[in-house]
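Run folding on both entries below.
>entry_1
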Amino acid sequence: MKRIDTKLPDVCIVEPDVYGDQRGYFMETYNQKAFADIGITATFVQDNQSFTATKGVLRGIHFQNAPHAQAKLVRVTRGAVMDVAVDLRRGSPTYRQWVAVELSAENKRMLFIPRGFGHGFKTLTDDVEFCYKVDDLYSCECDRGIRFNDPAIGVDWGEVTESLLSQKDTTAPLLADSDCNFVYGEI
């Protein structure tokens, strides 16, 4: 297993070891010791999976406020996405900065997103299956989002078709108007 750091500290790409032959392939998608060896010590408690039928759908930017903030390990098992992590920790040297990584069934990469970061993705193909592990259970009371096109963040999503967004995402507040409670050093 290989860790590739991104421009955002603690957000990293994980490249699994893939063993293949003419029959197909095998890979470990999670191994607690192997992840700890590359500096990821989150204890995952829930697995989630989503399906998106259409290319160009944007989901995000989502997070859960403390006390139920979540670290995420995300990957794609069918299709491809542009996956985005945004630093939402007030006081952080990288506050409001973002990183985008292509995740696909073909490249088998995963992205680790620590607590204190928002997350979103845009589908690059039709028929996308997206899987993620989280280190805290879902909490309706702490579930939050910020507007995908917040100019203070400036994620370059490429062309976005408003009809492919959920109502939750089109009506999400700007970061400045949100009650995001992440503080650098406290998450």
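>entry_2
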Amino acid sequence: MKRVLLASMLFLSASLLSAATNKEIKQEAKSAIMKMGGALKSHMKQNMKAGGPEQAAGFCLEKASGIAKEVNAGYPKGVSVKRVSLKYRNPANKPTADEAKVLEQIQSDVKRHKAVPKMIVKEVAKNSYKVYKPIFMSKGVCLTCHGDIQTRDPEAYKLIKAKYPHDKAIGYKKGDFRGAFVVSIVK
């Protein structure tokens, strides 16, 4: 009886530790995503306001990667953020095999009208995690560069197509699943 009770207590304490670790990991990821997303979004808004879709597309093509590197350099050691998509524009945003599996599961859940978690934590090794925050096409302005032929801005898309001739990141409609922020955390 004592062994069963001890085993149950060990299991329960491990579960509580896991829940606490999961909450801590999610909080750290949320903070990192807000920093990255905020930086990219504010620059995008400034460029859209200053010069419309063409200038915003030019910003994305020329400066977004640099801003992402800058923001990543400011994170604590062991933390990095990237964006990935099954329909990527920049080959640097192509998901790894494990990331593609998570994206495919999210896409499947969306198609089946199943609730998608706001954040998904995957332990990839001891003290090493990947946290996924799904990205949806929630704003109509995103369709200016990612929509179908009727919603894309033709001049902005000429710039995009010139740099990324194998662009897959088009054909979206408002509300579609786009990809995910992936936060890697090594403790």
